[in-house]
Structure to design on (227 residues):
């Protein structure tokens, strides 16, 4: 039987510390930073975001900037040719639907209505919407990035064939809403430091004794008499 999300957090917290959830309140910034973070390191996306904000005085200015200029500004963040037009399309849509680019009203909507509003923006998928809801607005949503998805599958929480979109709904049904932030952050840290995509350090993993994907367990089965 797979470890419960609560048991996973209990074992990981002494290793990484229990994360404290403090929503920052800037939903548009979270939207754009999440787009910049796709398929790139946090350091690079952060630098691209800072460069963009230093060059332009407002969200309106970014939305109206020449496309080539914005591409050059965020080049260090990776995939700038794809991300720049997506960022501008999102900002234009937000400006049209919420003049002033203030998304605090989403806090007052039913959760699924707020999620649907965000998903209605150009190119905004379940992860980006969940990041805005959780990190900026403090609403209960579960962002599932590659680390959370990989670790959850290795631990047997969700089936191996689960898609990234499906993983959001499945994990939200398994984890208590009050634990979404803690679970998300702990699995990201674990996926980066120990349960990596290649060569996971199973020997250093506090979950290893109960992990169905443990390389140590697989090795012991292969070396057992008669195997």
């Amino acid at each position: 039987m797979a470890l419960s999300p609560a048991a996973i957090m209990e074992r990981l917290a002494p290793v990484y510390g229990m994360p404290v959830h403090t929503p920052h309140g800037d939903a548009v910034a979270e939207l754009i930073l999440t787009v910049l973070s796709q398929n790139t390191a946090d350091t690079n996306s952060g630098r691209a975001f800072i460069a963009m904000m230093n060059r332009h005085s407002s969200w309106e200015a970014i939305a109206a900037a020449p496309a080539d200029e914005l591409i050059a500004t965020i080049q260090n963040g990776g995939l700038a040719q794809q991300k720049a037009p997506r960022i501008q399309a999102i900002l234009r849509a937000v400006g049209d639907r919420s003049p002033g680019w203030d998304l605090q009203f989403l806090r007052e909507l039913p959760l699924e209505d707020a999620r649907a509003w965000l998903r209605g923006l150009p190119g905004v998928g379940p992860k980006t919407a969940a990041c805005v809801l959780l990190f900026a607005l403090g609403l209960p949503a579960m962002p599932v990035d590659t680390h959370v998805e990989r670790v959850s599958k290795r631990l047997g929480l969700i089936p191996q064939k689960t898609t990234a979109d499906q993983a959001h709904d499945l994990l939200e049904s398994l984890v208590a809403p009050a634990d979404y932030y803690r679970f998300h952050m702990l699995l990201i840290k674990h996926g980066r430091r120990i349960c990596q995509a290649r060569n996971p350090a199973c020997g250093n993993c506090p979950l290893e004794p109960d992990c169905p994907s443990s390389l140590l367990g697989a090795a012991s089965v292969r070396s057992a008499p008669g195997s």
Remarks:
- Residues 219-227 have pLDDT under 50 and may be disordered.
- The domain at 27-136 is CATH 1.10.340.30 (Endonuclease III; domain 1).
